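SEVERITY: medium
COMPONENT: batch folding queue
REPORTER: lab tech (J.R.)

DESCRIPTION
The queue accepted two submissions in a row. Attaching both inputs and their returned C-alpha cells so the on-call engineer can compare them side by side.

ATTACHMENT 1
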Amino acid sequence: MAGAPLGGFGLEAEETQRVTDVMAASFSGTALDMESFAESMKYVAPVAKAAGMSIEETTAMLGTLANAGIKGSQAGTALRRIISELGATGGDVAGAISNLATQGLNLADAKDEVGRSAQSALLGLSKGTETTAELGAAFRDAQGKAKEMAGVMDNTSRGALARMQSAIEGAQISMGKVLAPIVERLAGFISDLANKFQQLSPEVKKTLVVIAGIAAALGPAMLVVSTLATTLPVLGTAIGAAFTAATGPIGLTILAIGAIGSAILYFWDDIKGPFTNVINYFITLYNEADFLHIGVAALKQVLVQPLPLPNKWC
C-alpha cells in the first residue's frame, strides 16, 4: 500500500516508515481510509510532487476533503486540478487557498479558479484551511503512529481474528506433520495391494470380481424385498409380518449369508481353485502387513474387554 505514494512522490524505500506513519495518522484522525487514500493518491501524488508539495501536506488536504465527504477518485482528480491551477507558477498552493478563503471565496469564484469539476473541493479546502494546517502539523509529527495503530488493532476483534487464523494455520501444520507418516504408510499399503492384485492369475481375479458382483447385487435386491415388505401387510397380516421379520436386521443378514453361500456353491466347480488361492492371498497379506496387525489387535482389545455391570448386579 505504501508503494504507490512512495513512487508518486519520488521517495526512496527508506522513507517507507514515514509514509506508513502518515497513513496511520490520517486514518485515525480523518475520514480517510486505506481504500480512499490509495485511490486519491493515484491521481494526485505525481502532480503534488511536481508542485513541490510533501506527502504530509497533500494528505492533510485529502483528509480535509474526506471530512467534507469528498473521497477517493473524486478527491484525487479534484485536488489534482486545484494544484495544477493554483500551483502552475510554482507558488504555494496552501497559501493560495488561504488567500482565496480570506477574500470570501464563493461558488462562482471557485468555478472561475478551477472549473466546475473541482469547485466543490476548492470550497471545502477554503473553509477548512485551519483543519488542513493542523493536520499537516500532526502528520509531520506522526513518527510511530503505524506501530501504535498496529498495537491497537491487535487488541480488537480484528486482531483476535488474525491471531485465531494464525493459530489455526499452526495447528494445520502440526496435524500435517503428525498425519504425514500415517498417510504415507496407508498410501504404501494401498499401492502394494494394487500391485499384488495385478500379479494375480486371471482365475483369482475372476473370483474376486464374482464375489464383488454378488456383494453389489445384494444392495438392490434387499431394497426390492424391503419395499415389498412394506406393501404386503395390505394383502395379509401374517404374510406381511413374515416379510417384515425377514427384512429386519437379522433377516437381512441371514439372507445375505444365504445368497453368498448359494452363489459360491453354484460356481464352486469353477472357482474352487481360485477361491482357495484368494483365501491364501489374504492370509499372506495379513501376515505381511503391519498396518492390519495393528488394527486387528486394537479391535480384539476392544471386544475382549468385560462389559461394565451395575453395582447391584455384582
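ATTACHMENT 2
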Amino acid sequence: MAGFESLKALVIDDSRHIQTLVSEVLKAVGMDVRECGGGEAGLGIVKTWKPDVILVDFEMRPMTGADFTRALRRFEKIEGRRTPVLMMTAHGDQKHVLEARDAGVDGLMAKPLSTGAILGRVQFVLEKAGGPPGSRPGPSNML
C-alpha cells in the first residue's frame, strides 16, 4: 500500500499471536514495526522511539488499552505531539466505545482482524489525524 513505507508503528497486545499477525501485515507494506505485550512496555518504547501510529489491545492486564492511551496522552501533552491510536477490541458495546473515546483513542478495530481491516483502519486514523507524523494536535472523532 503506497505511503506506508516510511512510517513507524507500535503494536501492543498481550497475545503474541495478535502481535505477530498485526506486525506482519504492517511490515508487508513497508512499515517499521515494534511490538510489545503490555501498556507499561509500550510507554517505555514511546519515550525513546516515536511511532507514527499505535495499535493497542483494549483488554490487557494490568494496564488496559484505555489506561495506556490516557497515560500516552498525558505524556504527549508535555511533549507537544499527538500520535494516532487505533484500539483493537472484541467489545463493540457502547460502554467500551465511550471508554476508548474518552481515553483519547482515534479509532476502533473489531476483532477478529483481517489484513484489509488492519490496513484500512490504519490508513483511516492516519488520514484523519492529518499533519506530519508525530506532530498531530488535538483529538479526532473516532466514529
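NOTES FROM REPORTER
The chain has one domain: 13-129.
No errors were logged for either attachment.
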